[in-house]
Amino acid sequence: xxxxxxIGGAGYTAGELLRILLNHADTEIxxxxxxxxxxxxxxxxxxxxxxxxxxxxxxxxxFDDVDVLFLCMGHGRSKEFMDSQSLPENLKVIDLSHDFxxxxxxxxxxxxxxxxxxxxxxxxxxxxxxxxxATGIQLAVLPLAAGKLITDDIHVNAIxxxxxxxxxxxxxxxxxxxxxxMSAYKIFNH
Length: 190
What we know:
By secondary structure, the protein is an alpha/beta fold. The protein has helices at 12-22, 42-45, 77-84, 114-123, 132-146, 175-178; strands at residues 2-7, 27-33, 68-71, 92-95, 110-111, 126-128. It has a six-stranded parallel sheet, covered by helices on one side. The chain starts with a strand and ends in a 12-residue tail after the last helix.
């Protein structure tokens, strides 16, 4: 049985991860951390999990109780978290933000696209989960690149719904603004 811990358990990403892990026969959720919801039942925040779990959010970080730690915080916060924590050596970490997806000096995370890095993922202690757009684009383009069929620049136009905006309300995430509207997302920094 793999024991999993989740950091940042109140957001959309964590809610979907919880649904998957709760129904995984070989996984036990040891803890779900949320500073803002500590003490509350998970199903009070993720109402689609009502009847699926009686777990409550916690605020402490019992790293020694888990085999794998999922980081489900907003973009930029996973790096801050990793820099501020002393994690057990044998603890596997899977980051679901964009913080460690780009390979650069000091980044020990393996890019978690199995079609590209299957063997590295099997051996990895730290995995950066690819985003939905990156996965869709890469799965479409990588076979063309492997077949040397790309002879020019590639341009991709992709559109997401409101959930791509995250959980925290912003000026542009209100229905009245988003309905029937499109905008560029974090140009030059995402």
